[in-house]
């Protein structure tokens, strides 16, 4: 099987490929879609099974570039929404555009936050807290998954055992520069080596 790799892989993105954030924000604030132009009408596609078993709308570009962002609809069964659902949403959205958004109800953010229908839910915390019950062993050899992560204002590093080889893997990111990243990696390596030497001696 031939694997296609982008010629940009592993290289800094060329200037012409970078997103112009100011233009993007200006377009969001100043431009309105023209429902008579097919390319500007609401159209649903499917991005496949996401495994999310709740009913709701998610506003996100997901893995797409910012100019390709949009809405995702997650039906209760967790799979892709059926065409009869996305078709209805698509038709209703385009009808609202054609009507100048006359049927769209609006509410101030402060009012929405205090509405009886508004509830806060820590999705990230609940997700992370439950990981241990579903992912606690490496798929390849059944070895327990463990490791450490150290975070700071200027960067972070993480170290964990490989699930396929008798090695540790170290990941790091610096929010400063390459020299700082090298220092992070060196410190992570020192900590891992010290811990491994301690375990061997006990």
Beta-strand share of residues: 5-15%
Query: Strands of the biggest beta sheet: in what spatial order?
Result: 3-4-5
What's the helix count?
Answer: 5
| Share of helix, binned | 25-40%
How many structural units, i.e. domains?
2
Topology readout:
Layout: H1 21-30, E1 56-60, E2 70-74, H2 83-98, H3 109-114, H4 123-134, E3 148-152, E4 155-161, E5 168-174, H5 178-201
Could you walk me through the main structural features you see in this protein, from its secondary elements to its overall organization?
By secondary structure, this protein is an alpha+beta fold. The chain has two domains: about 20-115, no CATH class; about 130-200, 2-Layer Sandwich (TATA-Binding Protein). It is about 35% helix and about 15% strand. It has helices at about 20-30, 85-100, 110-115, 125-135, 180-200; strands at about 55-60, 70-75, 150, 155-160, 170-175. The longest helix has 24 residues, at about 180-200.
């Amino acid at each position: 099987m031939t694997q296609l790799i982008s010629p940009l892989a592993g290289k800094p993105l060329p200037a012409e490929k970078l997103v112009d954030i100011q233009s993007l924000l200006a377009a969001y604030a100043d431009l309105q879609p023209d429902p008579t132009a097919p390319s500007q009408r609401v159209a649903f596609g499917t991005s496949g099974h996401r495994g999310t078993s709740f009913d709701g709308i998610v506003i996100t570009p997901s893995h797409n570039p910012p100019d390709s962002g949009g809405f995702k609809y997650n039906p209760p069964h967790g799979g892709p929404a059926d065409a009869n659902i996305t078709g209805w949403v698509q038709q209703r959205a385009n009808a609202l555009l054609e009507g100048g958004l006359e049927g769209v109800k609006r509410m101030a953010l402060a009012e929405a936050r205090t509405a009886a229908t508004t509830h806060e839910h820590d999705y990230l915390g609940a997700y992370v807290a439950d990981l241990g019950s579903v992912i606690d062993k490496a798929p390849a050899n059944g070895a327990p998954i463990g490791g450490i992560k150290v975070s700071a204002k200027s960067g972070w590093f993480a170290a964990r055992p490989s699930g396929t080889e008798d090695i540790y893997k170290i990941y790091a990111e610096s929010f400063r520069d390459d020299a700082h990243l090298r220092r992070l990696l060196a410190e992570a390596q020192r900590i891992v080596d010290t811990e491994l030497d301690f375990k061997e001696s006990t």
